[in-house]
């Protein structure tokens, strides 16, 4: 599967303006398929601006680079055997290109994602070179995203655990279960410690929809800091500390652990 990224996700992964421009340009020029054998080779041939006739180009590439039928590509015929009429042929595979043309039958090639990438990168023209730069960059972007998910996924789970403790704390102290606003106050407390801004302020500043999770747009370092604070807040909640006391304690913990880290938030 080829993962597609929007501009905000690329910014979150610390991509430069030039890198973002390349990814957005290429994704628009040639949207890659999500599954193997979904890319029509004719579409790729047209995109790459190859001077050769399609049939000569695809068969030549298959032969030269040893692509394997049913592993790297598959062949589909655009009609059924009834077109063959009363001929001696029982399948399209038995027909030559000339014979297929005579019966008005097209031989289509559908490629795996890896074959698409390879065909793009070996084409020695401007679009081929653009594709090569894109795929090299995407390897790096995917690696950065993997690192981000390694922090974001645990942070997401830790927030759920903290929410359970917030609810239990509210019941012990105030004799009622936590309301939506009380969960929001806890989340904003952590956001304020790290960024100096509430969730709504961050969403407004960075143009994030109100129903989206702000933490899905934060950089790895920010979510790492939030993960730490969520873990510590659970301990303080179990100690039945009041909100203000917990906020002060968490602020000191944050400063001690991350005082040498950048305090700004970028999404």
State the helix count: 11
Task: Estimate the strand proportion.
Answer: under 5%
Which shape, going by the Cα principal axes? elongated
Terminal Cα span: 25 Å
**Count of discrete structural domains:** 2
Largest sheet: 3 strands, antiparallel
Return the structural class.
Answer: mainly alpha
State the helicity in percent bands.
55-70%
SSE order in H/E notation?
HHEHHEHEHHHHHH
Overall pLDDT score: 88
Number of strands: 3
Q: Which ranges are low-confidence, i.e. pLDDT below 50, for 5 or more consecutive residues?
A: 86-90, 263-267
Record the strand order, biggest sheet. 1-3-2
Alpha carbon gyration radius: 28 Å
Task: Please summarize what this structure is.
This protein is mainly α and 267 residues long. The protein has helices spanning 7-12, 17-29, 41-48, 54-64, 97-102, 113-122, 126-174, 180-195, 199-206, 220-238, 243-258, and strands at 39-40, 73-77, 107-111.
Give an overview in words:
With 267 residues, this protein is mainly alpha-helical. The chain has 2 domains: 7-136, no CATH class; 144-258, no CATH class. It has helices at 7-12, 17-29, 41-48, 54-64, 97-102, 113-122, 126-174, 180-195, 199-206, 220-238, 243-258, and strands at residues 39-40, 73-77, 107-111. The chain has a 3-stranded antiparallel β-sheet.
